[in-house]
Amino acid sequence: MTYSRIVGTGRYLPERIMTNADLEKIVDTSDEWIRTRTGVERRHVCAEDQTTSDMCIEAAKVAMDDAGVTPEDIDMVITGTTTPDLIFPNISTIIQHKLGIPACTAFSLEAACTGFIYALTTADKFIKAGEAKCALVMGAECITKLIDWSDRNTCVLFGDGAGAVILKSSDKPGIISCHLGADGQYKDLLYYPFGASKNLAAAGTDAGKIMMTGNDVFKVAVKKLGQIASETLEDAGVTKEELDWLVPHQANIRIIQAMAKRLDMPMEKVILTVQDHGNTSAASVPMALDVGIRDGRLKPGQLILMEAFGGGFTWGSVLMRL
Ligand code: ACO
């Protein structure tokens, strides 16, 4: 049996940091409101001329170095992102070429905040099927470029960044169980009002603004994430007591606390980056994974549950041994 296993990780965060105090100067908000409702204290914001692929390339170089692989070793590139550089060519082809990776399967997945979990699950299937041996898998977002900085409901939540992993074929797991879900009936609770085929004029007064009904998103997120975590554990025949770590999507500290409670996990077993990164959408899980591995909390052999939830809605989880 062939499995896939994460053998290297990396992250990149843009230089510029925006604190809650900076936001107090822009919109009618307070550090206290943002901290208590969301857990966010600061977020990184990309430069005007910086693109998602620029950030991916930096994160990928660190992950490749960590894994000890060269560009020639990589035979698949997948990026989970909602903010690619261009409509086409695909962002993964830009990254593949700039990193000097020989021609290979390269594409992106757009599943909002669940993008990395979808990308990792897809790469796992390719490796298990014997169609790839060494994949570069990323979650990355320049989401602040979609933000209306006068809308206090959304501008305090988000940040930019990129996370990357190297996923290699292995004769032992690695990735144990992946579960994905989506339901478009919730589209109106969280969306961006224009794109390539629905034009700017059709968006009217909502143009340039993330549309979100925050408290309804919150409720569905907790419910769906709880369900998918249970399914993933059941499918793998693993009890929640056996889990060493939860590496969740970093949307909101209260969603994360609710998930930890459902899994009977103390917060000491949860990797938290929301305070420093904000919600970086598809980048949040791979960056949190990298933070936990590099500071020595996540150790080889431990059982880790990663999960995410985002616009669509989409949701997903991956259970793995490091
Ligand atoms: N500063 C001060 N007040 C604010 C701010 C702000 N930045 N934003 C909203 N408010 C006000 C609202 O206007 C409202 O005022 P009102 O009662 O006078 O109308 C009040 O605060 C309460 O608003 P709620 O939306 O009910 O506040 P809630 O406790 O639900 O917190 C939040 C809002 C943080 C958005 C929360 O609902 C949430 O995190 N939801 C999950 C959504 C999410 O994470 N989205 C990110 C993308 S999806 C994903 O990644 C899961």
Brief description of this entry?
This protein has helices at residues 20-24, 31-38, 52-67, 91-98, 115-128, 152-155, 200-203, 214-236, 253-262, 274-277, 284-294, and strands at 3-12, 16-19, 42-45, 76-80, 105-109, 134-141, 161-170, 175-182, 190-191, 211-212, 245-248, 303-310, 314-321.
Radius of gyration of CA atoms, rounded to a whole number:
18 Å
Q: Can you give the mean pLDDT?
A: 96
Count all strands and give the number: 13
State the helical fraction. Answer: 25-40%
In quaternary terms, these chains amount to single chain
Secondary structure tally, helices: 11
Bound small molecules, by name, code or SMILES, are:
acetyl coenzyme *A
Residue ranges: pLDDT <50 for 5 or more in a row? none
Q: Could you say which overall geometry the principal axes of the C-alpha atoms support? A: globular
